[in-house]
Amino acid sequence: MGPRRRSLLVGGAALGLLGAAGCSRVSGSGAEDGGNLLERLRSQGTVRLGIAGEIPFGYIDKDGDFTGEAPEIAKVIFKRLGVAKVQPVPTEFGSLIPGLRSQQFDVVSAGMYINPDRCAQVIFSDPDYRMRDAFIVRKGNPKNIHNYQDIVKRKAKMATGTAYAQIGYAEDTGIKQSDMLILPDQLAGLLAVEQGRADVFAGTTVTVHNVVKQRNSRLAEATEPFQAMVDGKPDIGAGGFAFRPEETRLRDAFNVELHKMKKSGELLRIMRPFGFTREEMTDLTAEELCS
Q1: What's the rounded Cα separation, in Å, for the pair 125 and 108?
Q2: Which of 6, 172, 180, 238 allows an S-S link to 163, with CB 3.0 to 4.6 Å?
């Protein structure tokens, strides 16, 4: 489905929640007038959010609490839409769209990148963030690596995450995937750089900076963010919430509240604890990204 982030479930608590949350389904009929899922969610008082267990986008933390930038935004918006409770449904990233379409959950709340391939399968809210890339490198950045071209010039060993968009960005620069070290997540990437198994780990700027800060690494650091390119053009990574194609009324109501939060600055206040800054805020629309 084009560039994407993929994450693993977080612990046994997430697996237990998956089993519990998968028992009931809410069908949105009345597609000819934009669907009636919002009314059904208000009636039952709960919305099920599909998450992919990826810090900082949507995950179950070490205390078993459901959090992340996308779920925290969803909690606020759905409460204002008259749905008091949110229920997480953890799954693998690649299963989010199939799970949404088969009604395993009601909304994808995982910071999913919006691109034309996905827009052919689901409808998106406008994005809540725009993301650039960054690297984990050895302390002091001894090989002076700041973008994918530098990896090629310095003949550096690159690592990244399984099915990360960064694989495609690197391949576009001429780095073969067979020459990359593919790892489960950003923590494994940090350890690979610290241990000298890789010179650089590529990820999104927020995930990279978060893991270096959380681990308080003495051997590695995060580089400044930069814009990834594909075919010589900037590849915009911007994420939002996904809905079933017939549920335009729910998506539109969600967008109204999202734009109010953007205008008031509330959106940034919610996202800031997860490492987001004003640099990641965006006025892009889903329509622009889908085209």
Answers
A1: 10
A2: 6
